[in-house]
Amino acid sequence: MKTFYKELKIILFIVGILLLLLNIYGLFIPLHSPLLNNKNLYKNKTSDEITMSKEEVFEKLKNKKGSDKEFVEIANNAIHEGILHYWDDELAKEFNLLIPIYENYLLFLSSYIRPDIFKKYEFCGLWKKGVERGVGWCTQSSALLTYALRDRDIESDIYVMLYHAVSLVKVQDNEWWVADPDYGVVIPHSIQEIENNPGLIRPFYQAKGYNNEQIDMLVKIFDKNNSDEQKIGYIRDTNYCTYKHKPFEYAVYFLKWLIPLSLTFPLIYSSILRRKYENE
């Protein structure tokens, strides 16, 4: 039995060391895939492209000058220019939508348990990870903007509709705006005003160069009475990235270090005890 426990400790120690080495390796590998710079890879999947580096995005989001309204405009534009609109399965691994094993082996292994969530993972609380990765859908862009604003103590929520997601931002007392980082548009009206009169959004999307067909589609999406949602009884909500999401992300990034350290502990501890006993 002693031999069994000794061998078990050695096996756990080796696994722990390997996981530690994997984590250390991951510290030197950026989450931002260099393949994002190759537009030929995804030009048939999206017309979007990255026009601002992650370093420039972070610099914009560090800006402490100006009012909350000004910062919302700056942050919304930075997320828009720094995040590629892409969410297809085809390049999920290449673009690190599937979290690489060296980045976080717990999130990677979770993709085999809950592929619907973890095969293409969206960051929420750890929004800086999402900015670093530089790719995502409208829900990811809105999540990154929302949590970046919250870190600046600006009240914000992610608002999910059937075919789109935006951020709801409190810019001052009793005044809310709708920010759409996926399109790079800020609408100085509340979501209630827009849902009651979706045509309000037209001039703001037009100012960003979107054509009538694209704007008509968005008007339909924002319309709370649109037929697509009514057919399936879809309920719009702000529960995307719930309050549990941030602690979960912090936990898995803490555990990725705690687990291997714990695995190495039994052998190290028994070795210390043995040496202490031999010296007595």
Description:
It is built from twelve helices and six strands. By secondary structure, the chain is of the alpha+beta class. Helix 1 (2-27) packs across helix 12, helix 2 (54-61) runs antiparallel to helix 6 and helix 3 (68-82) packs antiparallel against helix 7. The longest helix has 35 residues, at 245-279. The protein starts with a helix and ends with a helix. The mean pLDDT is 92.
Characterize this entry briefly.
The chain has 12 helices and 6 strands. The chain is of the alpha+beta class and 280 residues long. Helix 1 packs across helix 12, helix 2 (54-61) runs antiparallel to helix 6 (127-133) and helix 6 (127-133) packs across helix 7 (138-151).
Question: Share of helix among residues?
Answer: 40-55%
Strand-and-helix sequence, N→C?
HHHEHHHEHEEEEHHHHH
The major beta sheet can be summarized as: 4 strands, antiparallel
Distance between the termini: 25 Å
Strand proportion: 5-15%
- The count of DSSP E runs of length 2 or more, i.e. the number of strands, is 6
Query: Biggest sheet: strands side by side, in what order?
Result: 3-4-5-6
What's the mean pLDDT score? Answer: 92
Strand and helix layout:
Elements: H1 2-27, H2 54-61, H3 68-82, E1 84-85, H4 105-113, H5 115-118, H6 127-133, E2 135-136, H7 138-151, E3 156-160, E4 165-172, E5 175-180, E6 185-187, H8 191-196, H9 202-206, H10 212-222, H11 227-232, H12 245-279
Parallel strand pairs: 1-2
Antiparallel strand pairs: 3-4, 4-5, 5-6
Essential attributes:
elongated; 52% helix; two-stranded parallel ribbon; alpha+beta; 4-stranded antiparallel β-sheet; single chain; 6 strands; 280 residues; 12 helices; 9% strand
